[in-house]
Amino acid sequence: MATAKKNSTKTASKKTSTGKSAAKKTSGTPRTGTPASMKPISTAMNRSGLIAHLAEAAGSEATAVRTRRAALDATLLASVHRKCLGSFTLTGLLKINVVNVPAKKKRRGIDPFTKVEREFAAKPASVKIKTRALKKLKDAAL
Predict the structure, then answer these.
(1) What pLDDT digit, counting tens, does each position of 86-106 carry?
(2) Cα–Cα separations (whole angstroms), residue 120 to 1, 59, 115, 127
(3) For residues 100 and 125, is the Cβ–Cβ distance under 8 A?
(4) What are the residue ranges spanned by the domains of the chain?
(5) Largest separation between any pair of C-alpha atoms in the chain
(6) Alpha carbon separation from 38 to 31, 33, 56 (Å, rounded)
(7) How far is CA 116 from the centre of its chain?
């Protein structure tokens, strides 16, 4: 009789510990606050409006959102600094690159508008910031 009880408890424990049913239950719960579930925003936001919106969407305080935004700003500025990498990627959304434009010497050439030969002025070296939209941002605009 004691062996019959042991066998029944073993089979019961085996039936309840299946990984497939437990995984289905946990993965089926909907997550709130994900970008896919957000409604389109019809008005332009300033900085404080953006911080308030992000705080509400994330369910956190505005001060925490401000510190995270400040950290993101500092990371972006450090990435595009002239002594550093020169590019920054906000994964899936946008990519920012620094393009160093060399100096141009003074030269003689034909003016494309008047078709008269003239002297074009020299231009100093400069730095340009190029921004590219990536897949998530392009898909959101469609």
Answers:
(1) 999 988 899 999 999 999 999
(2) 105, 58, 13, 21
(3) yes
(4) 47-79, 86-108+122-142
(5) 112
(6) 12, 7, 12
(7) 49
Own/partner pairs, 75-78, CB within 8 angstroms, 24+ separation? none
The DSSP secondary structure of 52-121, one letter per residue, reads: HHHHHHHTS-HHHHHHHHHHHHHHHHHHSSTTS--EEEETTTEEEEEEEEPPB--EEEE-TTT--EEEEP
Percentages of the chain per state (helix, strand, coil), in multiples of 5? 45, 20, 35
Q: Cα separation of 65 and 35, whole Å? A: 16
With beta carbons less than 8 A apart as the criterion, state whether 106 and 119 touch.
yes
At 109-139, the pLDDT tens digits run 999 999 999 999 999 999 999 999 999 989 9
- The tokens 């019959």 sit on which residue? 4
